[in-house]
Specification:
A 6-stranded antiparallel β-sheet has the order 1-2-6-5-4-3, with no helix packed on it. The protein has one helix at residues 87-92; strands at residues 11-15, 19-23, 25-31, 35-40, 43-58, 63-76. A hairpin with a 2-residue loop joins strand 4 (35-40) and strand 5. It has a single domain, classed as Immunoglobulin-like (Sandwich), CATH 2.60.40.2000. Helices cover 6% and strands 57% of the residues. The relative contact order is 0.21.
């Protein structure tokens, strides 16, 4: 059986709240001028701001660069958040 090595390399660099460079990006979920959502090796990353613009995207190298007015960044790792099932099904089990 062949062993598969998973490279867990994720880096996030913010310059002056105007430019973001991210490595470890596996997919772009959605983007517009106010919100960019990407899947990273460390969970789903949501970047909120204004006039956001994707400058460079290379999924083969797992890199993304964007600029604009950065207001917030939030991770959702899927294990603690967003697990299968609705809120009501989790509540009533």
């Amino acid at each position: 059986m062949e062993e598969k090595h998973i490279n867990m390399n994720h880096r996030l660099v913010i310059n002056d709240r105007e430019r973001v460079s991210i490595t470890g990006v596996s997919d772009v979920i959605s983007f517009d001028t106010d919100i960019v959502m990407v899947e990273t090796e460390m969970g789903t990353l949501t970047i909120k701001g204004a006039e956001l613009h994707v400058n460079r995207l290379n999924l083969e190298k797992e890199e993304l660069e964007l600029d604009g007015q950065i207001e917030s960044l939030e991770y959702n790792d899927g294990a603690r958040y967003g697990s299968k099932g609705s809120f009501m099904s989790k509540l009533f089990g």
